Amino acid sequence: MSPELYDCSKPKSPLDVKLQVEHIGDSSFVNTATLMTTDGKPLVRNLSSFIAVDKDTDRSQPLPDEWKIKYAVVGKDVGLLRFSKYKKPSTAKAFKVYVNRSDQDWNNHTNWSCYVRFALDGLHHHVKHGLVSGFSDLEMRGIKRMELSYSGQSFDGDSLDVFVWNDDVDVNKVRTHVEKDGKLIFQGTFEYYMYQHAQCTHL
Questions:
Q1: Tell me, what DSSP letter sits at residue 152?
Q2: pTM, rounded to two decimals
Q3: Where is 123: in which H helix or E strand?
Q4: In 25-121, at which residue ranges do the beta strands (DSSP E only) sit?
Q5: How far apart are CA 155 and CA 161, in angstroms?
Q6: Phi then psi dihedrals of residue 69, to 5 deg
Q7: Domain 1-82, architecture per CATH
Q8: How many CB atoms lie within 10 A of CB 165?
Q9: Is 189 helix (H, G, I), strand (E, B) or coil?
Q10: Per-residue pLDDT, 198
Q11: Exposed end of the chain (fewer CB within 10 Å): N or C?
């Protein structure tokens, strides 16, 4: 996310979205979505990996051959997205969240974006209670980068534990870890801009 995203003096409407297939495999593909101003300045760039899933077996399935042929030429710039799991500190404290019906997607799984909300709610809780340091001005700082990794599923009525802690190296970064029944289902790293953004005034 660019600094311009948080600049109140720059118009945010209308906006253009550019979609690009960056890599295509046997059962997955990597896609880039870039949110831009009408004069071509990028505000947000999202790189995502999608996996084709058989609805009956809930397992991955091959992409259609016509997709592989069509995108074989354009999908060469970026390889598969790979994230290494990191270890949760033994001293990390859990923040409890509950999955609601409105969190479910069309396939009755918790929507991917809800895990970001769970993680950020956990971060705000940890900051409020002094469990994460260096982010007392969190409300004034914009997110610079997010790295999200999904390892499991959750459903309506599930109870999840959210863990948050400071990164060992970067003071502007926090790591989050979400478990269901003691099993990892999500990890996310959130990097913030080190400076405060000016507040917008709405008339």
A1: -
A2: 0.85
A3: helix 112-128
A4: 28-37, 42-51, 94-98
A5: 14
A6: -70, -45
A7: Roll (3.10)
A8: 19
A9: strand
A10: 57
A11: C
Region of poorest pLDDT, from 17-21, 89-93, 101-105, 118-122: 17-21
Task: Provide the percentage of residues in the chain whose pLDDT is more than 90.
Answer: 59
Inform me whether the pLDDT recorded for 75 exceeds 60.
no
Q: Which fold has domain 83-203?
A: Thiol Ester Dehydrase; Chain A (3.10.129)
Q: What is the reported pLDDT for 203? A: 45
* Same-fold call for 1-82 versus 83-203: yes
Q: CA angle at residue 47 from 10 to 70, to 5 degrees? A: 115
Distance CA 166, CA 136 (A): 13
178, 123 in Cβ contact below 8 A?
no
Q: Spell out the residues 6+ positions from residue 81 whose beta carbon is closer than 8 angstroms to its own.
A: 30, 47, 48, 49
Taking phi first (over 0 means left), then psi (-120 to 50 degrees means alpha), and beta for anything else, what does residue 118 get? alpha
